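C-alpha cells as discussed.
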C-alpha cells in the first residue's frame, strides 16, 4: 500500500473531503525503486505524505486552519486506507496570529474569497 501512488492519492483526496476542506489541487510522485510523496492543496492549507515502504513507514502532515476543517476526520480516513499497525500523532498550533480566534477569523475570510 505504501508504494501505490493511486492508493495514497485517493486516501489523501478522500481525507481532505472528510475534513470538510476545499481541494484546490494535488500532486503525487512515485519514486524508483519505491516510495511515494504527495500533497493535496486545500483552501485551509494542505495534506502531505512521504512513504518509505522498505521501512513500513509513512510521514503524514495534515495542516488545517479555520473552524470548519477537521484534521481528525482526515486522519481517520488515512488510517482506514493505509491500515497502520501503530501511529504517533503530534498536534501543533501553527501560524502568525496571536490568538486562535484571530487565526480562525483570518482563515475564514480567506476561504470565503477563494469560494467566491
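Sequence:
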Amino acid at each position: 500500500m505504501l508504494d501505490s501512488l493511486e492508493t495514497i492519492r485517493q486516501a489523501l483526496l478522500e481525507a481532505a473531503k472528510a475534513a470538510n476542506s476545499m481541494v484546490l489541487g494535488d500532486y503525487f510522485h512515485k519514486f524508483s525503486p519505491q516510495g511515494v510523496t504527495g500533497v493535496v492543496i486545500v483552501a485551509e492549507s494542505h495534506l502531505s505524505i512521504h512513504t518509505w515502504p522498505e521501512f513500513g513507514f509513512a510521514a503524514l502532515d495534515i495542516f488545517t486552519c479555520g473552524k470548519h476543517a477537521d484534521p481528525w476526520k482526515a486522519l481517520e480516513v488515512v488510517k482506514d486506507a493505509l491500515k497502520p499497525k501503530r501511529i504517533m500523532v503530534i498536534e501543533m498550533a501553527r501560524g502568525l496570529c496571536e490568538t486562535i480566534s484571530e487565526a480562525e477569523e483570518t482563515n475564514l475570510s480567506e476561504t470565503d474569497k477563494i469560494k467566491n
